[in-house]
Write a structure and sequence with these properties.
The protein is globular. By secondary structure, the protein is of the alpha+beta class. The protein has 5 helices and 3 strands, in the order αβααββαα. Helix 1 packs across helix 2.
Amino acid sequence: MKKNPKNPKNPKKTRNQDISYAEVKDALENPKFKFRTLQGISKETHASIPDIERVLCEHSDEVVRLYRRGAHGEELVTTRKHYNKNASIKEKVIGVIINNVY
C-alpha cells in the first residue's frame, strides 16, 4: 500500500522542496534531546539524510559534531547554542582535549 504523497503525516521532502536550516535547527534544538542523529533529524523534518548533510555543511560554523557516537554508532550533532546549554563539563573538557569542539 502506497502512502498518499499529500498526506501530512508523511510529507517527504522532494528536490524542489529543499529543507531550510531553520527546520534542521529546530530539530537539533528540540528540548527532548541533548544531541541528535541524522536519522532522528530526518524523521522529525521528513527530509532525506543527504539533504540534511548538505544543510549541516552549509552551516558548519553553527553546528557541533560530537567526538563520540550514538548507541548504534551514529554520528551525533547539535547546534553550538544547544551544546553549550546542555553538554556536561566532562563532555566539554574531552572535546577541548581532543580538539573536536571548542
